[in-house]
Fold this protein.
Amino acid sequence: MTYIKKNVNGLLLILIVIIVASLAGLATYYQKTYQNLSENYQDKLSDINTLLDDLNAQRQRVNETTYELTIKEQREESLSTQYETLEDEKKAVDLDLSSTKSDLDQSRKELSDAKDALRQSEYSLGLANEEISGLRNQATALRQQVADLVQQLNECS
């Protein structure tokens, strides 16, 4: 009987150690995963800020170009040959503006994709936290079960 008692206690101890080690491993894994997600988010945010700075610089450049084009048109309105040249430049600026708008749309799409990825990551993190909570509850239940079994064993002795 004492041999079985020692084996049961040993097995229960090993089971508790395995559960505690598993919980520690899971906590470390999810902490590392969250840290990676946080770093990725910061990287994407930095990229978006850089893109916004570039966009603002291009917008400034477009505004300056448009202003210069307006001044040139006013000065050279009477000269038809130079007017055609200015017209070509205006078309180039419009193409540049269109390209800039396209870049802006692409940046907004990338921002939206990054936000979606962040939401997905937060959702996954929530699921992981729920799973950890469930495992902790199981561990608590198992500890209680072990305590009850030890008590029953002591009462049998």
Observations:
- The helical segments are 2-75, 80-156.
- The mean pLDDT is 86.
